[in-house]
């Protein structure tokens, strides 16, 4: 585990170019007196292999920032680049490609398909890419073993605990070997003990898969496990 540091922006020192680059991004919802300034001149860089914890009160802009980085939302101004792709200028086809090949998401809600087994849920992204059956099954088993659910491959979500369902969701997010994992309050529906286990799992899979991750969280365990902590307040990056 690396030591945790706190910073508003910047990257871990090193020769590699940032995997994520956010430059002067603004995002406003509504207009006039009802306008909500979710992001205000946000600039941020995240290095390859770095695990960043994004913290701030509810309404501080964390989800909006994650959504703009992952291509689920567009900024009103500024520029976002992920793995050399300028996300903020991609058309819908380019965004689909980004979310299929580069970025994966984990949310508070697990989003599993109830009628599919754990293994089948994890295999959905691989089926969409038409991955050969043998390769797909091997990848699914590897991921279930990685998240500690190998023996539960044939169980459906309703037969699993909340923590186990989130582990399946994490395994599914890793199916296509993404370069960036975006997790928005991934322990929000879990009890503290299960949440700690899931946070430790995210740290472990980032290292095992060689990924970069940005995780929004209120959980002090995730903060302690992160390489760097970024604070948001009223849509701005601030010193902790």
From TrEMBL:
Statement: the UniProt record of this protein carries the keyword 4Fe-4S: no
Tell me the superkingdom of the source: Bacteria
Molecular function terms, GO-annotated: ATP binding
Q: Which UniProt keywords apply?
A: ATP-binding, Nucleotide-binding, Transport
Query: In this record, what's one Pfam family?
Result: ABC_tran
Q: Please give the SMART domains that the UniProt record associates with this protein.
A: AAA (SM00382)
Q: Transport: is it a keyword of this entry?
A: yes
Record-annotated ABC transporter domain positions: 20-238
Q: What is this protein called?
A: ABC transporter ATP-binding protein
The organism of origin for this protein = Cellulomonas wangleii
């Amino acid at each position: 585990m690396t030591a945790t540091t706190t910073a508003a922006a910047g990257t871990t020192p090193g020769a590699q170019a940032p995997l994520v680059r956010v430059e002067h991004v603004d995002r406003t919802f509504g207009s006039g007196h009802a306008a909500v300034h979710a992001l205000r001149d946000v600039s941020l860089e995240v290095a390859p292999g770095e695990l960043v914890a994004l913290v701030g009160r509810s309404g501080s802009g964390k989800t909006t920032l994650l959504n703009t980085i992952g291509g689920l939302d567009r900024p009103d101004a500024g520029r976002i680049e992920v793995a050399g792709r300028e996300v903020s200028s991609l058309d819908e086809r380019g965004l689909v490609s980004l979310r299929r090949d580069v970025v994966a998401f984990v949310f508070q809600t697990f989003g599993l398909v109830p009628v599919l087994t754990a293994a089948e849920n994890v295999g959905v992204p691989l089926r969409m890419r038409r991955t050969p059956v043998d390769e797909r099954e091997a990848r699914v088993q590897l991921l279930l073993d990685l998240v500690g659910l190998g023996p539960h491959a044939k169980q459906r979500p309703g037969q699993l605990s909340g923590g186990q369902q989130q582990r399946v969701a994490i395994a599914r997010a890793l199916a296509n070997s993404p370069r960036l994992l975006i997790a928005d309050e991934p322990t929000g529906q879990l009890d503290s003990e299960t949440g700690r286990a899931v946070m430790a799992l995210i740290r472990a899979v980032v290292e095992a898969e060689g990924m970069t991750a940005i995780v929004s969280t209120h959980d002090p365990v995730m903060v302690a496990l992160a390489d760097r902590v970024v604070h948001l307040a009223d849509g701005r990056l601030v010193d902790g």
